[in-house]
Specification:
Length: 144
């Protein structure tokens, strides 16, 4: 019987990819709300889309057994899901005009999201990661 670790790792990677996509969607919406800062928000959206694609690549690498890693028991997927819920909730509130959409307010939301990602400590996803996989993970960390 195959270990549950690959399934758990894939679940974590899927949650992270979904989070990065939700953040990209929020930033795209911010670009539509704030014409004066449109390019700023679109640049952030592109970064988040890139991160989602990198995490999806990591999942494919794992599925194809192109790397070796040991999931760390200290990483909590619940934090990823909670942050995704936070992002989606703020996106809905902006769409309904329930919260301010001035640049300072939007920037505050973005800062809270990015800070939360840093606090999640993605580098502790795995105890051991090798080669290209580790490089992708390090790129996401440095760009955040």
């Amino acid at each position: 019987m195959e270990s549950l670790e690959p399934a758990k790792t894939l679940e974590i990677l899927k949650a992270i990819s979904d989070l990065e996509s939700a953040i990209a969607n929020l930033y795209r919406y911010c670009s539509e709300l704030r014409e004066a800062e449109k390019e700023f928000w679109l640049a952030l959206e592109r970064d988040e889309q890139k991160h989602a694609q990198m995490v999806e690549q990591m999942a494919r690498m794992m599925e194809n057994r192109k790397f070796f890693c040991v999931p760390s028991g200290s990483f909590d997927t619940t934090k990823v899901k909670n942050l995704k819920n936070f992002v989606e909730r703020h996106h809905r509130k902006l769409q309904k005009l329930e919260i301010p959409a001035d640049f300072k307010s939007l920037l505050s939301i973005a800062w809270n999201i990015e800070y939360s990602i840093v606090e999640m400590n993605y580098k502790n996803l795995f105890s051991i990661a090798e080669g290209e996989y580790e490089s992708l993970l390090q790129t996401i960390l440095s760009e955040t």
